[in-house]
Amino acid sequence: MPPASGSWTSRHGYLLLGLALVTLFLLMFLIAEQLRIPLMTDPRPYLEPATWPVAMIGVLLLAADVILPVPASGVMIAHGAAFGLVPGSLLSLCGGTAATLVAYWVGRGSRGVVSRLVSNEQRQRGAELLERHGMWAIVVTRPVPMLAETVGILAGTSTTMPWWKVAIAGAVGNLVPAVAYAAAGAYATTFVNGLAVFVGVLAVALLVWVLQSWSRRLSVKSAPRHPRSGSNREDPRLHRQCQH
Questions:
Q1: How many CB atoms lie within 10 A of CB 212?
Q2: Where do the structural domains in the chain lie, given as residue ranges?
Q3: What pTM value is reported for the model?
Q4: What CA–CA distances, in Å, run from 132 to 136, 199, 213?
Q5: What is the pLDDT along the chain (244 residues), one digit of tens a residue?
Q6: Dihedral in degrees, nearest 10, Cα atoms 45, 47, 50, 53
């Protein structure tokens, strides 16, 4: 049974769900760091040989980033170092797009839980929000750790986002990080370069979001107003007086 629409949890259901997902991903990351799991902390030494099995392991690691605390940037850098710029970029692009779809399908499987936590009104508002910004939200958040998985899962809980739109948005959002990290791995693998690439990718994502919001505001302002909504609409009372 869905929660009452007037309760505090129903009014903030999506916010609470998003915070819970981010907290879960953060805890998984901290546990992996404490346990020092090799593939979950620094997978690059295991992805050095330029072989097809290694390539597939890297792609699968990126796809599993939704449910495992995989250092995606380290895997992408390893792809570039082992396979070069173009092949490494393509491998990372495939793995990152697969991660977007995995997050989406996890969200699809969680609709029953969401329906019990979020009211019908909130789900309708979430659907309208995804209808307006869904693809761009996925594109912009793909380079952001934890937030990317959260947005992908939330997109899966909605009925307005088909999987092929999510795949396109995931591919577009993963393109810049895949190329940038592959270039860092292919030409100069250092901590400073990796950090610079991370900051640069986040800056590009922020710029895309600002430009998209700006263009949307311009399109709304320039859209023709409905003739019945304008200030010059004929007053029906004056029309009845003229008839009399």
A1: 16
A2: 8-219
A3: 0.70
A4: 9, 27, 11
A5: 445 445 555 555 566 666 777 787 788 777 777 777 777 777 888 888 889 999 999 999 999 988 888 889 889 999 999 999 999 999 999 999 999 999 899 888 877 777 666 666 656 665 666 666 668 888 888 888 877 887 888 888 877 788 999 999 999 999 989 998 898 888 865 555 566 676 777 777 677 666 666 666 666 566 555 554 444 444 444 444 445 4
A6: 140
